[in-house]
Each structure stands twice: as C-alpha cells, then as structure tokens.
C-alpha cells in the first residue's frame, strides 16, 4: 500500500493498531501514541488478523472491548502473528463483563478508558514481557 491510509500517522518506533470504530477513542489513542514516538492506524475487528499478519511494524493492538466482544478469538489470534504485538484491552469503568472477557481471552493489559493517557504510554515504553 502506498501512502498513508485515512487517519494513519508515521513515527519511528513502530505502529499501534486501534481495533474499533469509536472515532473519539481512536483519535485519543492516536494522540497518546504519537507523543511516545509511535505511529497509529486503525481497523475493525473483522480485519485485524489480516492487518497484523501483513504488517511487522505493529507493536501493539489497542482494542475497544465494546466493539470487539464478538471477535475476541480473532483479535487474540492476530496477537500471535506478525511482530507478536502487545494486547491491550480498553474498557469502561463499570463494564465488568468486558474486563472478565479480556482477561479470560488472554489480553496482557486491561485499561479503563479514562486511564489511557496515563497507562498507555507506560505500557508502550516498558520492556517486552514475553
């Protein structure tokens, strides 16, 4: 693919892929990851596997659990392909089902939406856990 797709930014550390359709959340994540030197792009859950397996520069998947609740197996499978990106679930504070589903599915991190600005940069810059 030549050029940047809509909403894609470039930086040197690699890409963070937002999985979801929430424009506000996607824009917020894009701004956060750019501040720590990553680029950002987005996709929908149905396309996450193909996107990750085709792009070795993807270092993390930030997944809107509200959007991906019916596609968790595809998201987790995508996390095992390509560059083996970190798996980060984003939930609302009062959504205990999404938290439980993310942990059960195998997400490494579960972050409340309101804590993204604090926790996402730390996760992206910490040493690889695997």
What is the number of helices? 6
Give the number of DSSP strands: 5
For the record, what CATH class applies?
Alpha Beta
Report mean pLDDT, rounded to a whole number: 88
- Beginning-to-end CA distance, first to last residue: 30 Å
Structural class: alpha/beta
Enumerate the strands of the largest sheet in spatial order, edge to edge or round the barrel: 2-1-3-4-5
Q: Might you state the CATH topology name?
A: Rossmann fold
Low-confidence stretches: 1-6
**Which architecture would the CATH scheme give at its second level?**
3-Layer(aba) Sandwich
The largest sheet, given as strand count, sense and whether it forms a barrel, is: 5 strands, parallel
Rg from alpha-carbon coordinates: 13 Å
* Molecular shape: globular
| Proportion of beta-strand residues | 15-25%
- The level of helicity is 40-55%
Number of domains: 1
What do you see in this structure?
It comes from Leptospirillum ferrodiazotrophum. This is Response regulator receiver protein. The protein is an alpha/beta fold and 130 residues long. It has one domain (15-125): Response regulator (Rossmann fold). Helix content is 40%, strand content 21%. The chain contains six helices and five strands, in the order βαβαβααβαβα. It has helices at 23-35, 48-54, 65-68, 72-79, 96-105, 116-125, and strands at 15-19, 39-43, 58-64, 86-91, 109-112. The chain has a five-stranded parallel β-sheet with strand order 2-1-3-4-5, sandwiched between helices. Helix 1 links the parallel strand 1 and strand 2. Helix 1 (23-35) packs across helix 6 (116-125) and helix 2 (48-54) runs parallel beside helix 4. The longest helix is centred in the first third of the chain and has 13 residues, at 23-35. Residues 1-6 have low confidence and may be disordered.
């Amino acid at each position: 693919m030549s050029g940047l797709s809509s909403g894609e930014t470039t930086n040197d550390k690699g890409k963070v892929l937002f999985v979801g359709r929430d424009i506000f959340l996607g824009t917020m994540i894009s701004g956060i990851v750019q501040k720590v030197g990553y680029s950002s792009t987005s996709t929908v859950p149905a396309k996450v596997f193909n996107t990750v397996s085709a792009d070795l520069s993807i270092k993390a998947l930030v997944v809107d659990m509200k959007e991906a609740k019916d596609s968790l197996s595809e998201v987790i499978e995508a996390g095992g392909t390509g560059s083996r990106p970190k798996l980060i679930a984003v939930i609302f504070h009062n959504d205990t089902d999404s938290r439980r589903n993310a942990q059960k599915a195998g997400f490494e991190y579960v972050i409340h939406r309101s804590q993204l600005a604090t926790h996402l940069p730390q996760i992206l810059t910490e040493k690889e856990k695997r």
